[in-house]
Specification:
The chain has 234 residues and is an alpha/beta fold. It contains eight helices and seven strands; from the N terminus they run βαββαβαβααβαααβ. It has one domain: 3-Layer(aba) Sandwich (Rossmann fold), CATH 3.40.50.720.
Length: 234
């Protein structure tokens, strides 16, 4: 049965891989991006997760086109890396506002319909960095760690309505961002990963697809690492 799904920040990278995987399963999938630029084969809506009104408009458009949203993947995120001593307050708060508060805005809007339906899936895309920490990424790590507390609180709050809330924590993924890293840096990263390679975006998407499926109906409040063993024990 086709379900209505929404992936924030689904216009590129991991988000696009997730959206395409969910759509391949026969679902009606919409993606958000700030520009609203069309993605072939997917419904695209403009949305800035920093603005509650923009989030509300995006959901209204998706609901009108493909029905109440049953699965939401909160993926939209930014980075502003800098050592703490040099990090401006603006760089800290902008990352928190997009990555963590943005996920809260999306989840808050999503649960209206889910509570009425008495079913739904909230899936938050965190990062191994949120569990391990990373020098120069205090803002990003804090935002991604915050998603764990958010998801687990919502899992307790919404479980009685058959709404599950889970977190996927990717490690280093083969994307445009990692492709641009110097070879030295890439080698240093791979040296920390027991499996000795980067993940593909499709490997992250496969885990999200599982969490959205009927097979994961009894999983909630979980943090699932997809990191090649990098963060084991955290």
């Amino acid at each position: 049965m086709s379900r209505s799904m929404l992936v924030t920040g689904g216009n590129r990278g991991i988000g696009l891989a997730i959206a395409r995987r969910l759509a391949a399963g026969g679902n009606a999938v919409a993606v958000t991006s700030r520009s609203g630029e069309k993605i072939e084969g997917l419904t695209t809506v403009p949305c800035d997760v920093r603005d509650a009104a923009s989030v509300d408009d995006a959901f209204a458009k998706v609901e009108a086109e493909q029905g109440p949203v049953e699965v939401v993947v909160a993926n939209a995120a930014i980075t502003h890396d800098q050592l703490l001593a040099l990090m401006s307050e603006g760089d800290f708060t902008s990352v928190i506002d997009t990555n963590l508060t943005g996920a809260y805005r999306v989840a808050r809007r999503a649960v209206r319909g889910m509570m009425r339906m008495r079913r739904g899936r909230l899936i938050f895309i965190s990062s191994v960095v949120g569990l391990l920490g990373s020098g120069g990424q205090a803002n990003y790590a804090a935002s991604k760690a915050g998603l764990v507390g958010l998801a687990r609180s919502l899992a307790r709050e919404l479980g009685s309505r058959s709404i599950t809330c889970n977190v996927v924590a990717p490690g280093f993924v083969d994307t445009d961002m990692t492709a641009s890293l110097p070879d030295e840096r890439k080698a240093a990263i791979l040296g920390q990963v027991p499996l000795g390679r980067l993940a593909s975006a499709d490997e992250i998407a496969a885990v999200v697809s599982f969490l959205a499926s009927d097979d994961a109906a009894y999983i909630t409040g979980a943090v699932i690492p997809v990191d090649g063993g990098l963060g084991m024990g955290h």
